[in-house]
Amino acid sequence: MINAVNYYAQNNAITQSDLQTKLLSACGTFAVSQDQNSCKNIVNNNIAKVYNNNPIPVQNACQTCQLIMTNAVNYYTQNNAITQSDLQTKLLSDCGTFAVSQDQNSCKSIVNKDFSKVYNDLKGGRNYGQICDDLNLCIAA
User: Fold this and answer.
1) Which domains does the chain have, with CATH numbers?
2) Which residues contact 79 (CB under 8 A, 6 or more apart)?
Protein backbone atom coordinates (compact mmCIF):
# COMPACT_ATOMS: atom_id res chain seq x y z
CA MET A 1 0.00 0.00 0.00
CA ILE A 2 2.79 2.38 0.90
CA ASN A 3 4.48 1.62 -2.38
CA ALA A 4 1.21 2.40 -4.18
CA VAL A 5 1.02 5.79 -2.47
CA ASN A 6 4.60 6.56 -3.43
CA TYR A 7 4.04 5.48 -7.02
CA TYR A 8 0.85 7.48 -7.52
CA ALA A 9 2.09 10.49 -5.55
CA GLN A 10 5.02 10.85 -7.96
CA ASN A 11 2.54 11.47 -10.78
CA ASN A 12 1.73 15.18 -10.38
CA ALA A 13 -1.25 14.99 -12.72
CA ILE A 14 -3.23 12.70 -10.42
CA THR A 15 -6.06 14.30 -8.47
CA GLN A 16 -6.86 13.54 -4.83
CA SER A 17 -10.00 11.72 -5.95
CA ASP A 18 -8.02 9.62 -8.45
CA LEU A 19 -5.43 8.76 -5.82
CA GLN A 20 -8.16 7.73 -3.38
CA THR A 21 -9.82 5.53 -6.02
CA LYS A 22 -6.53 3.83 -6.89
CA LEU A 23 -5.63 3.23 -3.24
CA LEU A 24 -9.07 1.83 -2.43
CA SER A 25 -8.65 -0.50 -5.38
CA ALA A 26 -5.27 -1.59 -4.01
CA CYS A 27 -6.96 -2.36 -0.67
CA GLY A 28 -9.06 -4.92 -2.52
CA THR A 29 -5.94 -6.98 -3.21
CA PHE A 30 -5.49 -7.93 0.46
CA ALA A 31 -6.25 -11.60 1.08
CA VAL A 32 -8.45 -11.10 4.17
CA SER A 33 -11.65 -9.03 3.99
CA GLN A 34 -11.00 -7.58 7.48
CA ASP A 35 -7.64 -6.28 6.19
CA GLN A 36 -9.38 -4.86 3.13
CA ASN A 37 -11.82 -2.96 5.35
CA SER A 38 -9.05 -1.68 7.63
CA CYS A 39 -7.10 -0.52 4.60
CA LYS A 40 -10.14 1.30 3.17
CA ASN A 41 -10.70 3.06 6.50
CA ILE A 42 -7.06 4.17 6.61
CA VAL A 43 -7.25 5.49 3.04
CA ASN A 44 -10.55 7.30 3.58
CA ASN A 45 -9.44 8.84 6.88
CA ASN A 46 -6.00 9.97 5.65
CA ILE A 47 -6.38 10.75 1.95
CA ALA A 48 -6.05 14.52 2.38
CA LYS A 49 -2.88 14.11 4.46
CA VAL A 50 -1.41 11.65 1.98
CA TYR A 51 -2.31 13.75 -1.05
CA ASN A 52 -0.93 16.94 0.47
CA ASN A 53 2.24 15.04 1.44
CA ASN A 54 1.78 15.78 5.12
CA PRO A 55 3.32 12.98 7.14
CA ILE A 56 0.88 10.82 9.01
CA PRO A 57 1.40 11.24 12.77
CA VAL A 58 3.88 8.97 14.52
CA GLN A 59 2.27 5.69 15.44
CA ASN A 60 2.57 3.64 18.58
CA ALA A 61 4.42 0.32 18.48
CA CYS A 62 1.21 -1.70 18.23
CA GLN A 63 0.00 0.26 15.18
CA THR A 64 3.38 -0.01 13.50
CA CYS A 65 3.51 -3.74 14.20
CA GLN A 66 0.03 -4.27 12.80
CA LEU A 67 0.88 -2.37 9.61
CA ILE A 68 4.09 -4.25 8.89
CA MET A 69 2.72 -7.65 9.97
CA THR A 70 -0.23 -7.14 7.61
CA ASN A 71 2.40 -6.97 4.87
CA ALA A 72 4.09 -10.08 6.28
CA VAL A 73 0.83 -12.03 6.22
CA ASN A 74 0.12 -10.89 2.66
CA TYR A 75 3.62 -11.78 1.43
CA TYR A 76 3.43 -15.18 3.12
CA THR A 77 -0.09 -15.83 1.79
CA GLN A 78 1.09 -15.04 -1.73
CA ASN A 79 4.16 -17.30 -1.42
CA ASN A 80 4.32 -19.65 1.56
CA ALA A 81 7.63 -20.97 0.22
CA ILE A 82 9.33 -17.60 0.86
CA THR A 83 12.36 -18.02 3.09
CA GLN A 84 12.58 -16.38 6.48
CA SER A 85 15.52 -14.28 5.31
CA ASP A 86 13.80 -13.11 2.10
CA LEU A 87 10.64 -12.19 3.98
CA GLN A 88 12.57 -10.26 6.60
CA THR A 89 14.44 -8.37 3.85
CA LYS A 90 11.14 -7.45 2.13
CA LEU A 91 9.66 -6.17 5.39
CA LEU A 92 12.75 -4.12 6.26
CA SER A 93 12.49 -2.55 2.81
CA ASP A 94 8.81 -1.77 3.47
CA CYS A 95 9.82 -0.10 6.74
CA GLY A 96 11.88 2.36 4.72
CA THR A 97 8.73 3.61 2.99
CA PHE A 98 7.06 4.84 6.19
CA ALA A 99 6.48 8.60 6.04
CA VAL A 100 8.09 9.43 9.40
CA SER A 101 11.66 8.39 10.20
CA GLN A 102 10.72 7.54 13.79
CA ASP A 103 8.14 5.07 12.42
CA GLN A 104 10.77 3.64 10.04
CA ASN A 105 13.11 2.96 12.97
CA SER A 106 10.33 1.51 15.10
CA CYS A 107 9.29 -0.73 12.22
CA LYS A 108 12.82 -2.01 11.68
CA SER A 109 13.15 -2.72 15.39
CA ILE A 110 9.89 -4.68 15.34
CA VAL A 111 10.92 -6.71 12.28
CA ASN A 112 14.30 -7.51 13.82
CA LYS A 113 12.95 -8.15 17.36
CA ASP A 114 12.33 -11.89 17.09
CA PHE A 115 11.78 -12.67 13.45
CA SER A 116 11.99 -16.43 13.91
CA LYS A 117 8.87 -16.15 16.11
CA VAL A 118 7.16 -14.03 13.44
CA TYR A 119 8.03 -16.54 10.72
CA ASN A 120 6.85 -19.49 12.83
CA ASP A 121 3.59 -17.65 13.57
CA LEU A 122 3.06 -17.11 9.84
CA LYS A 123 3.71 -20.80 9.16
CA GLY A 124 1.19 -21.57 11.90
CA GLY A 125 -1.51 -19.47 10.22
CA ARG A 126 -1.62 -16.68 12.79
CA ASN A 127 -2.91 -13.27 11.70
CA TYR A 128 -1.16 -9.91 12.08
CA GLY A 129 -2.92 -9.13 15.37
CA GLN A 130 -1.93 -12.45 16.91
CA ILE A 131 1.67 -11.99 15.77
CA CYS A 132 1.85 -8.54 17.38
CA ASP A 133 0.32 -9.99 20.56
CA ASP A 134 3.00 -12.71 20.54
CA LEU A 135 5.66 -9.99 20.26
CA ASN A 136 4.08 -8.30 23.32
CA LEU A 137 3.42 -5.11 21.35
CA CYS A 138 -0.37 -5.17 21.50
CA ILE A 139 -2.78 -6.22 24.20
CA ALA A 140 -4.98 -9.11 23.09
CA ALA A 141 -8.65 -8.19 22.95
Assistant:
1) 2-51 (no CATH), 61-134 (1.10.225)
2) none
The CA-atom distances, in angstroms, between 70 and each of 13, 121, 126 are 30, 13, 11
Per-residue model confidence (pLDDT) at position 12: 46
> In terms of pLDDT, which residue wins out, 140 or 48?
48
Binning pLDDT at 50, 70 and 90, where does residue 95 land?
Answer: confident
Cβ neighbors of 56 (< 8 A, separation 6 or more) are: 46, 49, 50, 99, 100
What SS3 state is found at 1? coil
Higher pLDDT, 59 or 48: 48
Backbone angles phi, psi at 71, to 5 degrees: -60, -45
Return d(Cα 98, Cα 84) in angstroms, integer: 22
